[in-house]
Amino acid sequence: MHDDRQSTFIMVKPDGVQRGLVGEIISRLERRGLRLVAAKVMHVDESLAKRHYEMHAEKPFFSSLIEYITSGPVVAMVWSGDKAIEAARSTMGATDPIEATPGTIRGDFGLDIEKNLVHGSDSEESAHREISLFFADDEL
Ligand code: IDP
Ligand code: MG
Question: Of all residues in the chain, what percent carry a pLDDT higher than 70?
Answer without folding.
Answer: 98
